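RECORD TYPE: inverse folding
INPUT: structure tokens
STRUCTURE:
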């Protein structure tokens, strides 16, 4: 759905993106991660036709973004990290205004406005003045505007920033719904733990370069990160820790009350034997969890936190 080849973006003497090549298949929820200044917003703005790169090739849905940007607009919905609303308008008026800008047929406008308001849980504020909406509601309204023309690709730059915990939960569910609808979503965010739950693939940008990209489980396997073990016992956590200290496959051991955690590099096939050994030692086991890691783990292990 998105095809980028040898993309470079310069701001005077600063190289924001350098030789970036990336493919995002249709229906993916692709998470862009990286430190501030890594080039995430620049990449999203190029995809949204708001910036013209120094050189490179960018296609969305087979359309050349640089050669024919107007043809790309019906395919994309864009939400900036900073946005403005018309405070004196009513919620439905704001959406109606942009539906007209998108040239949505008059017969479909009311239905689409109702659908997007329901999707972002704002139908009860349909007739409210925008000035009366909370920060989270304003954010959801801007998101609804991006969905009005039923775009195939959504470009979301820090869409959950400023939302309270309940708002972030609602946003997470909304992304899941869009994924089920077959939409392609490109999202940048600093809330890595939440992105783990809805992103199907990720790309790490650093210093304007794409360090790694793909499905997270495949990246973790490719990087040979091993597993993260978390084991809970009723007591004798110190004995359990001593048992792992004698095991060559364990590293980074930590004890926190009744929980013992460590990095496991001996592979999944060695875990049943380790489990049996714990039981045979008479250590009262409560739970034994092996995790491949999450976005935070991936980011901290391969990132050098460099800006462009």
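DESIGNED SEQUENCE:
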């Amino acid at each position: 759905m998105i095809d980028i080849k040898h993309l470079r973006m310069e701001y005077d003497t600063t190289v924001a993106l350098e030789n970036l090549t990336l493919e995002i298949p249709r229906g993916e929820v692709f998470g862009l991660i990286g430190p501030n200044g890594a080039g995430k917003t620049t990449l999203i703005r190029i995809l949204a036709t708001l910036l013209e790169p120094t050189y490179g090739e960018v296609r969305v849905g087979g359309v050349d973004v640089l050669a024919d940007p107007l043809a790309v607009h019906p395919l994309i919905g864009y939400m900036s990290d900073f946005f403005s609303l018309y405070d004196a308008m009513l919620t439905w008026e704001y959406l109606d205004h942009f539906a007209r800008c998108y040239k949505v047929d008059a017969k479909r406008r009311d239905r689409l406005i109702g659908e997007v308001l329901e999707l972002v849980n704002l139908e009860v504020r349909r007739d409210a003045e925008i000035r009366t909406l909370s920060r989270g509601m304003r954010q959801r309204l801007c998101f609804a505007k991006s969905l009005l023309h039923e775009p195939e690709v959504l470009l979301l730059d820090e869409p959950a920033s400023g939302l309270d915990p309940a708002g972030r939960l609602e946003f997470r569910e909304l992304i899941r719904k869009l994924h089920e609808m077959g939409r392609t979503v490109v999202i940048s965010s600093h809330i890595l733990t939440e992105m783990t739950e809805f992103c199907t693939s990720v790309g790490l940008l650093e210093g304007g370069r794409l360090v790694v990209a793909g499905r997270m489980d495949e990246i973790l396997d490719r990087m040979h990160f091993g597993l993260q073990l978390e084991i809970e016992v009723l007591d004798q956590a110190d004995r359990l820790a001593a048992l792992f200290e004698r095991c060559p496959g364990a590293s980074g051991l930590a004890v926190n009350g009744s929980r013992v955690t460590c990095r496991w590099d001996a592979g999944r096939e060695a875990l049943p034997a380790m489990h049996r050994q714990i039981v045979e030692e008479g250590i009262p086991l409560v739970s034994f969890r092996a995790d491949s890691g999450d976005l935070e783990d991936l980011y901290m292990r391969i990132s050098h936190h460099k800006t462009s």
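NOTES: The chain has eleven helices and 14 strands.
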